[in-house]
Each structure stands twice: as C-alpha cells, then as structure tokens.
Design a protein that fits this description.
By secondary structure, this protein is α/β, with parallel strands linked by helices. The chain has a single domain, classed as Aldolase class I (TIM Barrel, Alpha-Beta Barrel). The protein is built from 11 helices and 7 strands. The protein starts with 12 loop residues before the first helix and ends in a 12-residue tail after the last helix. The mean pLDDT is 94.
Length: 298
C-alpha cells in the first residue's frame, strides 16, 4: 500500500548541506583509507550504457571486471556489470562461475517514456536473458504531476516482473527539483517493493550528490525502523574519484551503520571511479602513481 506522504519530514537545504559538509571533513588514517578504497571498489557496478555499445565492448568490460589489477594483493571483485538487456546474455556468459552479478537497465531507460506493458516486456526479457538485477526508472512526469499511485503501481508491477532478480529503482533526482520530492519518491519506491533506491541514470545533471544521497539514506533508515527491512542505496553518476567515494562511505556509516557497509546494500554507479581507486591503491602499495593509461577505460 502506498505510504502516507503527508507526514514525512521536510528538509532545509542549508541544514542538509551543513550536515553533509561535516562528513566531508572526517580524518581517515592511511590504513583505514586503503581498506575503505577496497570496500568502495567491491561496491562498484561497472557500466556501459551507450548507443554505440557492441558485444565486443561488453566482453571487454567483463574482462576488466575479472582482471582489475593483478599486481596488487587482495583486490576485490566489483559488485556487478551493468548493460542494456540486449547484452545481458553475453555478460552472463563472460562472468559465469564468478560472484560478479549482471545488472540490466529496463523500463525505457533513461527517459522512462513508454507504456507499462512495454516496460514489463523490457524487464521480463532482461530477466529471461539472465539478469540478476534490474535497474528501472520511475515515471518522473507522473510523479511531478502528483500521480503517486501511478508511480507506486508501476514499480510494484516491475517488481513482480523481476521474479528473483533484485530491483533497483532510479529516482532521477536531478529532475525531482526538491529534497522533499526526493524523500517522497524514496518512500514510494521502498513501499512498492524496491530492493535498492538509486539516485540517477547518469544521463541527467546533476546526477548523484551527497545532499540528495543523505536524504535517501535518511528515508532508508526510517523505513528500516518501521518495517525491519533493509533497503539498499546506489548513488550513480558524477562520483569519479576516491576522495568523494570515501566521503560517501563515511556518510553511509554514520547515517545507517555497519549493516549497510557491504555490496549487498550499497553500490556506486560510477565506472570511472574504479580506475581512480586502482591508482590510489597502486600508490599505497608502491609509493608511486601509475598513469591512467595503465587501466582500460572500459
């Protein structure tokens, strides 16, 4: 059932910015920094979602996922590889026998501008091809028009079409205008059956920001206190360097705690982040930076 949206907390933008600023000023010792970088690496969804994607590009991305940096000890696997439905079977074959999940966008990504039946077919096809996770987009036009029941019912229908696959619900927060709207959309998604809530497609600016992520984490915490159910979080887009990733992990730990500090409940949708983390880990291991040219972009 759709939640009561009239009794939600309201957010003062200045207050949220001040809270977030404190997370960014935490001091992290070098040993903890290395462990944090490895944790962040294990939470990344390596992604290729371009019109020019090809089977070869997807295979290359899967190869990268399996061979991140073989001359550093204890490098974890990334969490998942995310592709369009047409490439799910290829990715699934390339990653067979590994712990790396295959995620697929669906529901007329990134615009969401399609009818429900087409979105269900899109989702069902990705699941049939072997997707472990589905990243759907909400209908922002309906949400902004106040058609909250429509958005709820659509998410619930896609959740049913997912079967055993986990559902990440993309709010596209850059189009929601206010932090209060972000909170409302988070509530609707969680009560409709989302396993994760996700900030952005990465195609709209601004994408993930720490204030928006803070509001979504706040919603997840309140939902957990009410229901006992753990919902995951995925900031996506614009998180390109290690320093920012560590700030997100500080915020995650302080708002939600250690239960969420793993790839089952937190992901980064930021493929370029992987290379920056690898460069930082190489420096920690050897004392020298490697050029970014030593790491493939895809």
């Amino acid at each position: 059932m759709i939640p009561n949206l009239n009794n939600l907390p309201t957010y003062d933008t200045v207050g949220v910015m001040e809270r977030v600023d404190r997370f960014c000023k935490r001091s992290i010792k070098n040993t903890s920094k290395v462990e944090g970088l490895k944790l962040a690496l294990s939470m990344i969804d390596l992604t290729t979602l371009e019109g020019k994607d090809t089977p070869g590009k997807v295979r290359q991305l899967c190869y990268k996922a399996l061979h991140l940096c073989e001359n550093i000890d204890d490098i974890p696997n990334v969490a998942a590889v995310c592709v369009y439905p047409a490439f799910v079977k290829i990715a699934k074959n390339e990653l067979k026998g590994t712990p790396i999940q295959v995620a697929s966008v669906a529901t007329a990504f990134p615009s969401g501008q399609s009818d429900l039946q087409t979105k269900i077919m899109d989702t069902s096809f990705a699941v049939e091809q072997g997707a472990d996770e589905i990243d759907m987009v909400i209908s922002r036009g309906h949400f902004l028009a106040g058609h909250y029941n429509y958005v709820y019912d659509e998410i619930a229908a896609i959740k049913e079409a997912c079967g055993k696959a986990h559902l990440k619900v993309i709010l596209e927060t850059g189009e929601l205008d206010t932090l209060d709207n972000v909170r409302k959309a988070s509530e609707i998604a969680m009560y409709a059956g989302a396993d994760f809530i996700k900030t952005s497609t990465g195609k709209i600016q601004p994408a993930a920001t720490m204030p928006v992520t803070y509001v979504m984490l706040d919603a997840i915490r309140d939902f957990y206190l009410k229901t006992g159910k753990i919902i995951g979080m995925k900031p996506a887009g614009g998180i390109s360097n290690s320093k920012i990733a560590l700030q997100y992990l500080v915020m995650l730990n302080e708002v939600l705690g250690t239960k969420w500090m793993n790839k089952n409940y937190f992901r980064f949708g930021a493929s370029s982040l992987a290379n920056d983390i690898l460069m930082q880990l190489v420096k920690s291991e050897t004392g020298f930076y490697q050029s970014s040219n030593y790491f493939s972009k895809d």
